[in-house]
Amino acid sequence: MIMKTIFPAQTRLTLAVLAAFALAGCASFSKDGGFNSIEQITKERIGKDVKWARTDAERDTLDTRVAEILAKPLAVDDAVQVALLNNKGLQAGFYDLGISEADLVQAGRLRNPHFSMLRASRGDDYKIEQALTFNIFSLVTIPLAVEMEKRRFARMQQDVAMEVLRLAAETRKAYFTVVAAEETVRYMRQVKAAADAGAELARRMAQAGNWSKLNQAREQGFYADAALNVARAEQAHTVAREHFTRLLGLWGAQIEFKLPARLPDLPKTADDLPNVEQLAMEQRVDLQAMRLEIEALAKHLGLTKATRFINALEFGPARVLEGPRSDPYKNGYEVSFELPIFDWGGAKVAKAEAIYMQAVNRAAESAINARSEVRETYKGYRTSYDIARHYRDEIVPIRKRIAEENQLRYNGMLIGVFDLLADARSQIASVNGYIEALRDFWLAQSDLQMVLIGKPAMNAAPKADMTVPTRGAGH
Fold first, then answer.
1. At residue 306, does pLDDT exceed 60?
2. What is the Cβ-side half-sphere exposure of residue 45, based on CA atoms within 13 angstroms?
3. What's the pLDDT at 354?
4. Rounded CA Rg of the chain
5. Would you kindly state where each structural domain of the chain is located, as residue ranges?
6. Phi-psi region of 56 (alpha: psi -120 to 50; beta: other; left: phi over 0)
7. Which of helix, strand or coil describes residue 308?
8. Least confidently predicted of 1-10, 21-30, 314-323
9. Cα 374 from Cα 382, distance rounded (Å)
10. Looking at residue 6, what is its pLDDT?
11. Considering the entire predicted model, what is its pTM?
12. How would you class 118 by CB atoms within 10 Å of its CB: exposed for 0-12, middle for 13-18, buried for 19 or more?
């Protein structure tokens, strides 16, 4: 609907003041692009630095720092720091902040004015209409829209921070996996060496007629299994190392990074967290993000209700000429708005309400799931600690004592060399079992750290296969 009428100069002045006031309150881009909160959350939660490299100089600075860290064998904290500085997927995710902030700035700006003109003539008779209109209804909706976009921007900051924390947790798990895989390869090669010695001795004794074909076949079979396990361990190590390399964003000469020879020792005690659920409810970034989303949807619902009948009300000066071209213009104003005849906005409001209630229920589900996740992860952490400690304090020492006793018996010619080799294989197998248990503990600890601050990533780092056959001749 369009309406034109004459209006005095004071009205034009009032409109100009209103427009200037609206334009003066426009939102603007922040200096940090909203990244300071990401740095703060990362520092508070995991004690690491994260940087958004938006210029060549900033990228060069990060490259220099990464090179300094890679110059020495990587500890787990070093690996996490490299990933947070060098992972290109993470850097790409930071630009979601720029996109969201642009939406926020756009929401705070008054819509451009519309200029319309009609010109018609017949002979010396003219009809000329000219109007410059502003959407003054946006003066009412801009505060609601800005508030809604602020909530969305805050939610985006939480989402980006969550991706930083997930990358850190995944890098920790990949680190422990690849270090364990390297240890496994070394022990598998020791098993193969023992099996090779046994197979060679069995072959010579069989040639001399002092060894049965059955016993020789047993030793050869164990050697074949050991060689297969070495190949499997090397393949698992390759998969684990490449996964770790991708997380760190390394290529070229950087992939020659060095890792320590063994996993960190098992802590003296496991963490005791009787209030683990409450900690998760207070600290989890994903739950905080969902609360911000619900608040944003509530604002959007209010905006939807406010604009259910009218979402565009344009008002501005107009002038009209009717008659000869030499006649003066008639000054007035033009008002245009949508008439709610066919659509009263009920469907739009119902949709907004449904989206809001959907988010409320999903948030409730997330809170319930978070409590379950943290209970499950904490139980797994304590169990993995007990298993690793049992290996360290019981199984490995027992195997070592057995090996020492068998060495004495072999020196006294009470057992043969094949019994000694079989015992050595069993001892190596127990050590490999401890490596696997120790690796699982550090993975469980990483999962616990993650589940206390956010929802863990669905994809897990690959594990190395540590299966070692222990049967040989005489077993």
1. no
2. 30
3. 79
4. 36
5. 2-451
6. alpha
7. coil
8. 1-10
9. 12
10. 41
11. 0.77
12. exposed
CA dist., res. 187 & res. 388, Å (int): 18
- Tokens at residue 451, please? 């589940």
Superfamily of domain 2-451: Outer membrane efflux proteins (OEP) (1.20.1600.10)
- The DSSP string of 370-399 is HHHHHHHHHHHHHHHHHHHHHIIIIIHHHH
Using CA atoms, how far apart are residues 321 and 130, in angstroms rounded to an integer?
9
In sequence order, what E strands does 211-258 have? none
Give the pair of three-digit tokens for residue 393.
């304090």
Tokens of 239: 């998969």
> CA 429, CA 175: separation in Å to the nearest integer?
23
Quick one: which of 329, 292, 333 has its CA closest to 315? 333
Please give the Cα distance from 306 to 402 (Å, whole number).
81
User: What does the alpha-carbon distance between residue 351 and residue 308 come to, in Å, rounded to a whole number?
Assistant: 12
The number of beta carbons lying within 10 Å of the beta carbon of residue 342 is 5
What distance separates the 2 farthest-apart alpha carbons in the chain? 132
CA distances from 350 to 300, 346, 353 (A): 12, 6, 5
Place of tokens 């699982």: 440
Contacts of 177 (CB under 8 A, 6+ apart): 240, 243, 244, 439, 443, 461, 462, 463, 464
And the tokens for 450? Answer: 């993650």
Judge contact between 244 and 255, C-beta under 8 A.
no
Let me know: does 470 contact 423? Beta carbons within 8 Å.
Answer: no
Residue with the bigger pLDDT between 264 and 363: it is 264
pLDDT tens-digit readout, 9-32: 445 544 544 554 454 445 678 888
- The DSSP H or E segment spanning 77 is helix 76-86
Element housing 117 (H / E): strand 114-122
**Contact assessment for residue 308 and residue 352, using Cβ atoms and an 8 Å cutoff:** no
Which residue is listed with tokens 């193969």? 192
